[in-house]
Amino acid sequence: MFMPLPQTSTHVGYPAGAVDGDATVLAVLPRETAGEWLVITDRTPFHPLDSGWPDQPADTGQLVLGDRRLTVLDCLIGAAAEDSDELLVGEDIPVRRGEQGWRWLVLHVVESDADLTDLAGAPAGLQVDARRRRELSAGHTGCHLMALALNAVLAGRWRKEVRTDGLGAPDFDALAITSSRIHPGGSTDTYRIGKSLRKKGFSTDGLAGELPELSERVNGRLAGWLATDAPVELAAPGPELTARRTWSCLLPDGTPTIPCGGTHLRRLGELSALTVRLELAEDGSTLVANTIAELA
Question: What is the pTM of this model?
């Protein structure tokens, strides 16, 4: 059965911290995986996996439709050109999120042996797993703080002028990162420190031997920031999924801002501890930062 896609992008509530809400089902589409369906609503508190930078996992939870309660197994981003009802999902989307002439949709993945296409137009309740969301938010907030602290600690290793972060330090994180993965209560960030970074002016001399001291200095800076209980803000110009959101935190050193599509804590006092362990690959080409964010 053909079902037209919504004509407007999904409105999202997760940047403001929403973990539940009411919505209207606009479309239900079967997936290639038997028994799985994509439910599209006009608005949602669910955070989907970003198709361009998949750092934070999708929210999970419940979709309540009358007396039916469906488990949301995953949450993805879909897109369709304005003149088409062909839905493209995740890595199959050929343009960047927010591209003009496209509709951007949050897809709730649910499992059901019954045909769900008759649900289009029905009211729905959406309930995110709030505990898991908070743990992921802790990991994401910790990830940004770790990056800023790491930038500051590595500042003396730069021999050339490069772009700086929101606190004025050379932005090692932005210049070297190859992947970032948020998980409940932490993150794993991988940095490439090969020939291209050295050409930009970063020195790797003696880095392996200094890692314990560097980790200690990063952790000391993080502990000092947590003690301030500084407020965290995720600003968005509008409710659309495509709105460009920015993270900021009122730190003693300044108020850095970082483009971010994830979810976050509201204050640093929500964390009881934030620590990082730095590891260098044997060939010295990759630095990995393993961050643990413990909720208070």
Answer: 0.96
